[in-house]
Design brief:
The protein is of the alpha+beta class. The protein has a domain of 161 residues: Rod shape-determining protein MreC, domain 1 (Thrombin, subunit H). The protein has two helices and twelve strands; from the N terminus they run ααββββββββββββ. A six-stranded antiparallel beta barrel has the order 1-2-5-4-3-12. A six-stranded antiparallel barrel has the order 6-7-8-11-10-9. A hairpin with a 4-residue loop joins strand 6 and strand 7. The N and C termini lie far apart (110 Å). The relative contact order is 0.12.
Length: 288
């Protein structure tokens, strides 16, 4: 311990002398052309030490500068990530507004085409029955808006169902794809009547029953509501025939109908509150 103290003491003293010598050389050498032999010796001894110290100091400066730069870059990177997340969220919202605007425009155009013959009310789907037994949706319009039980409900694509329960500000709609639903249907081009029902296999397709065996019913023909039964007005588009078969009893035929409406994407609908005319809707695509 004592030896280390003595060594440190002499080392510190030596360093102090070297520093003092350098100061004196620098100060006194300003007015002289050449250094003295002693000064040259000290200079030669001290120069490598100076270079080593300079290298260490510059290395430490570069290291601390790099650490500071890395930290700054990391902070800027986090800020950029937050800005990107905000922009992505805003972009998603703008896209949703754009899609919603397109749906509203399509619905308003359809509402305008109905205005001469139907009194309709716009509504939004706010809930869906998750049960496999009953296919219903809830809309945000009810008795206070003039909605009544058994009113037909449509989208711009076609018929989707009718109101079965009404409260003050909402109503429940039974979809035509529910197997308990039945709609009086009509093959538009041949005027062949039948009953359109939901299928129990949850396929989303419809079955048009009780078609006469000799009826000229074929694939791709359009089916509209017949107006029979007192619930659904005549002429509402229902769907297109995809298949025609004879019943097992051999007496009548049935047709499988693909509905025009997409029941997995119901968002905006129209409630038909009053009918002024009949058989006035003609689905796009004609009779064949």
């Amino acid at each position: 311990m004592l030896f280390r103290y003595i060594v440190n003491k002499y080392v510190l003293g030596f360093v102090a002398l070297v520093v003092l010598a350098l100061i004196l050389i620098s100060y006194t050498g300003r007015d002289r052309a050449n250094l003295t032999p002693v000064e040259r010796i000290i200079k030669n001894v001290v120069t490598p030490v100076e270079q080593g110290v300079t290298t260490v100091v510059e290395g430490l400066r570069d290291t601390f500068g790099s650490v500071f730069t890395i930290g700054q870059i990391r902070n800027e990177n986090e800020d950029l990530k937050r800005q990107v997340a905000v922009l992505e969220s805003e972009n998603i919202q703008l896209k949703e507004y754009e899609y919603q605007n397109l749906r509203f425009r399509e619905m308003l155009n359809f509402k305008d085409t109905l205005s001469a013959d139907y009194d309709t009310l716009s509504a939004s789907v706010v809930a869906r029955n998750p049960s496999n037994w009953f296919k219903t949706v809830t809309i945000n319009k009810g008795e206070s808006d003039g909605v009544r039980k058994d009113m037909a409900v449509v989208t711009s694509k076609g018929l989707i169902g009718h109101v079965i329960n009404v409260s003050g500000n909402s109503a429940e709609v039974l979809l035509i794809i529910d197997n308990s639903s039945a709609v009086g249907g009509l093959v538009q081009v041949t005027r062949t009547p039948g009953v359109v029902e939901g299928m129990a296999d949850n396929s989303g397709y419809l079955k048009m029953n009780y078609l006469p065996k000799e009826a000229n019913v074929r694939e791709k023909q359009l089916v509209i509501s017949s107006g029979l039964g007192g619930i659904f007005p005549k002429g509402l588009p229902i769907g297109r025939i995809t298949e025609v078969e004879i019943e097992s009893n051999g007496l009548v035929k049935y047709a499988i109908v693909r509905p025009f409406a997409d029941f997995n994407r119901l968002e905006e609908v129209l409630v038909v509150r009053e009918v002024f005319g009949e058989d006035i809707l003609t689905p796009s695509g004609g009779g064949e």
